[in-house]
UniProtKB/TrEMBL annotation:
Cystatin domain segment(s): 28-135
GO molecular function, one term: cysteine-type endopeptidase inhibitor activity
Keyword set, alphabetical order: Disulfide bond, Signal
Signal sequence region: 1-22
GO cellular component, one term: sperm flagellum
SUPFAM superfamilies linked to this entry: Cystatin/monellin
Biological processes annotated in GO: defense response to Gram-negative bacterium
Species per Swiss-Prot/TrEMBL record: Balaenoptera physalus
Family membership: Belongs to the cystatin family.
Pfam families listed in its UniProt record: Cystatin (PF00031)
UniProt lineage: Eukaryota, Metazoa, Chordata, Craniata, Vertebrata
Keyword Flavoprotein (UniProt): no
Entry protein name: Cystatin domain-containing protein
Database matches in CDD domains: CY (cd00042)
Length: 137
């Protein structure tokens, strides 16, 4: 049977380990940060997710589509994060339409520049937008 002093030491050791683990979790250490090509399969699925998510949350009556991807950075910490800079334009398709639509011209023309930070676990097909900033282009 453990003596009361040993139980207190064990409890103190467990608490110390939990505090150290919590500190390490909050302190994001970058394993790597590098630019990846748009043709990378994970980037392609991430761009599809970003487009769908943007269109679902947008108050615009028309869908937007990616015109050009400017840069994609992959950051590895305790998770995988893609930081994406791109240009999008309004299409002629309304929200409910999902066909490959052409871009609006004339009065309804609208181009936006966007930055997305996306949490990705590709093997579970899990995506979450961590940050989004879009401005008129």
């Amino acid at each position: 049977m453990a003596r009361p002093q040993q139980g207190a030491r064990l409890l103190l050791a467990i608490m110390g380990a939990l505090v150290a683990l919590t500190y390490q979790t909050r302190r994001k250490t970058f394993i790597s940060v590098h630019e990846v090509p748009v043709s990378d399969p994970v980037v392609v699925t991430t761009l599809d997710f970003v487009t769908k998510d943007f269109n679902q949350k947008s108050e615009d009556t028309y869908n937007f589509r990616i015109v050009r991807v400017l840069k994609v950075l992959k950051r590895l910490t305790d998770h995988m994060e893609y930081r994406i800079n791109l240009e999008m334009r309004r299409t002629i398709c309304l929200k409910m339409e999902v066909n490959n639509c052409s871009f609006q011209e004339g009065e309804l023309y609208k181009k936006i520049d966007c930055f997305f930070s996306v949490f990705v676990i590709p093997w579970f097909e899990k995506y979450k937008v961590l940050a989004k900033n879009c401005t008129d282009g």
